[in-house]
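Bug report

Summary: structure tokens for HAD family phosphatase differ between web form and batch submission.
Environment: batch mode, default settings.
Steps: 1) Submit the sequence below via batch. 2) Compare with the web form result.

Sequence submitted:
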Amino acid sequence: MKVVFDFGGVVFRWHPASFLARVWPHRIETLEQGAQAAALFFQNYGGDWGLFDQGLIGADEVVRRIAVRTGWPRGEVETVVRAVPDELMPIPATVVLIRDLQAAGHTLHFLSNMPEPYADHLSSSYPLSEWFVSGLFSGRVKQIKPNAEIFAMAERQFDAAPQDLLFLDDHPVNVEAALARDWQACVFTDAASARRELVSRRLLSA
């Protein structure tokens, strides 16, 4: 089986509400306020941020657009955009899961919506080539989940039939898109529940 990992919220820490609360303590006092600000800032990874994810605009342009759209000071918006790489730290339990899947003989790949600057940071900071045989970053291939084309690109890149791929992603819409292409897929909530799912599918031993 070829197991395909999403990155943000799966392999790397990504919780926008608490992230914004840390970066903007003067503006955000509660996680509820953080969630509201995140919805406006990231637009559910569509809009301006979706174009950034897809590699169609750069960091300076996404900062400009968000500042214009929201009225937040450009310097504050830039602080958030610059702080994202430090937020993307490996989740230890997922790293253990990756190692266990490798030990069980499975081939691992990744499929991540990630702007090019952040993809470059992850590639240079962490042993992606040790964890994964290959992978696709949206910002590099100019396609984005949940669009069908990036899943088709992944099938070619991973040299796999859809039914031979199992996808772990924390966004249900991306999981639904994978299932629509006849991938196996499940929503990732945490490494422990993912491990139970993999055991139930007989990909890992209990």
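Above is the batch result. After comparison, the two runs are identical; trailing whitespace caused the diff. The chain has two domains: 2-13+89-200, 16-87. The chain has twelve helices and five strands.
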